[in-house]
Amino acid sequence: MTDLTQLTLEAALEGMAAGDFTSGEITEAHIRACERGRDLNAFITATFEQALEQAKASDARRASVKESGGEAGKLEGAPLGVKDLFCTEGIKTTAASRILGNFTPPYESTVTANMKAEGMIMLGKLNMDEFAMGSSSETSAYGSVVNPWKKHNRLVPGGSSGGSAAAVAADMCLGATATDTGGSIRQPAGFTGTVGIKPTYGRCSRWGIIAFASSLDQAGAIAKTVKDSAILLDSMAGYDPKDSTSLNVDNGNWVDACETSVKGLRIGIPKEYTVDAMPTEIQSLWDQGIEWMKDAGVGIVPVSLPHTKYALPAYYIIAPAEASSNLARYDGMRYGARVEGENLIDTYERTRAYGFGAEVQRRIMIGTYVLSAGYYDAYYLHAQKVRTRISEDFRNAWEVCDALLTPTCPGAPFEIGRQLNDPVTMYLNDIFTVTASLAGLPGISVPAGLDQDGLPLGLQIIGRALDEDTVFACAGALEQAADFTAKPEKWWL
Fold it and tell me: Is 161 a catalytic residue?
């Protein structure tokens, strides 16, 4: 039998439907891969025993459905990973932080509940940057995630969804949930040779996802192929009355859209994304992407997004401001870790000093500062005005094009520890992804080439709000043209 861990999600679902193998068999194969891949530190909590029980139940459901002539769930029997920002009933959820301790939710996030209803087998909770604050998955209280692409000079997998990206790239799961606040799906996908889809803000419910910045956080998926990412998103998305920001709109026909012709579409190339000191390899890959899209029958249109240069500063005011508010609830009183002090205030201070890592503390302090009296108007209010201008830039661009093509990241994955103590350089990793987040737009990263060291590089498609169909169509065309088949050498086995 073919190594079942090498299959795409699409092929695995087809194989189980055809009776070529069972969910039990493919789940066992992925569990073995997870056990052999411990050096990557992709998981915080493994749930292998539960996964085997779920697989057994899934095989019974599939047999019953086949006998009755019904249809199996969209993810029936597929072993997947879940970022440890999604609350999972009865299973420890940490947000990669010490402050949550052994918190075990008595409820399930809407996204994972939707996926379980469609037959997902959950292998465990995946490592990440603490509270999703980071671009390298090094801020986790459970240690850094390792990019599977290089054994020597251990590299970061990007962040904050680094565990999700590393696990998918290393064939430890068929796909994984992820979240994106300023690029935390697309950037790690670009760093690991995987596909990462961030949908329109409001497509996926935020209920049961531990909050970082509520006006920016959005669930999505990391997968092996564009079509796999569409399958995952289709099972995740949907209206949820428990989330006031959830959009009451129907899902598109995203799986079919991946194979839709893009002939006649117009792709915008934003001139502001050509940044100073951008590596030649990134520019060359972008140029190649433009040629690929031309060959697919797409019209190339130059566009301007003039407020792009203000996006990162605005983001790193708005996101920390929302974080300082959201993280005020972690005080050691009701759940999570608690460090006793001499009085109530001392207990608060000791608990938060112990529980939050350096990056989280930094962002709380920044957020508290920009919201404080005398600085709210000077910083936070101005940042929100910039956000409005960025949204206007995109609306102007949509008058002449249907989607945008940009690089995903300004460079290849870097060594663990190299940028950790240089927050400004670290924040620059989100320079190409943060604009779509501020505007609430869908974006996808597609692996498109290798740099001179054999490390993966990605290209990004950004689309109109609620137009994931076009995003998937363009991504499918890009994927077909790039024909990216490189895989990391499995040095960890």
Answer: no
Catalytic residue among 184, 205, 229, 324: 184
SS3 415: strand
Q: How many CB atoms are closer than 10 A to CB 107?
A: 12
CA distance linking residue 278 with residue 250, whole number of Å: 39
Strand segments, DSSP code E, in 400-455 are 403-407, 443-450
Helix axis angle, 280-295 to 468-482, nearest 10°:
110
- Domains defined along the chain, listed by start: 4-268+400-482 (3.90.1300.10)
pLDDT score, position 1:
54
150 noted as active-site residue? no
Spot the catalytic one: 109, 135, 160, 161. Answer: 160
Distance from C-alpha of 65 to C-alpha of 208, rounded to nearest angstrom: 30
- The pair of three-digit structure tokens given for residue 181, joined into one six-digit string: 């606040």
Nearest CA among 178, 260, 191, 198 for reference residue 476: 260
Round to whole Å and give the CA distance between 194 and 472.
15
At position 315, the amino acid (one-letter code) is Y
Query: What is the rounded distance in angstroms from the CA atom of residue 137 to the CA atom of residue 135?
Result: 6
Asked if 97 and 131 touch (Cβ cutoff 8 Å), the reply is yes
Cα dihedral 25, 26, 29, 30 sign:
negative
Residues 6 or more apart from 345 whose CB is under 8 A from it? Answer: none
SS3 content of the chain, % helix, strand, coil (to 5): 45, 15, 45
Q: Which candidate in 74, 83, 125, 198 is catalytic?
A: 83
Active site residue 184: yes
CA torsion sign for 279, 485, 479, 202 is negative
* Whole-angstrom distance, CA of residue 328 vs CA of residue 211: 11
Residue by residue, DSSP assigns 261-321 as --TT-EEEEEGGGS-TT--HHHHHHHHHHHHHHHHTTPEEEEE--TTGGGHHHHHHHHHHH
Instruction: Give the pairing type, strands 443-450 and 456-463.
Output: antiparallel
Name the residue with tokens 């169509």: 473
Look at phi and psi of residue 13 and say left if phi exceeds 0, alpha if psi is from -120 to 50, else beta.
alpha
**What tokens were used for 420?**
């950790």
Helices 226-236 and 468-482: crossing angle in degrees, nearest 10, is 160
Question: Under 8 Å CB-to-CB from 377, ≥6 apart: which residues?
Answer: none
283-328 per-position pLDDT tens digit: 999 999 999 999 999 999 999 999 999 999 999 999 999 999 999 9
Is residue 133 a contact partner of residue 98, using CB atoms and an 8 Å limit? Answer: no
Q: What is the pLDDT of residues 354-391, one digit of tens each?
A: 999 999 999 999 999 999 988 999 999 999 999 999 99
pTM over 0.90: yes
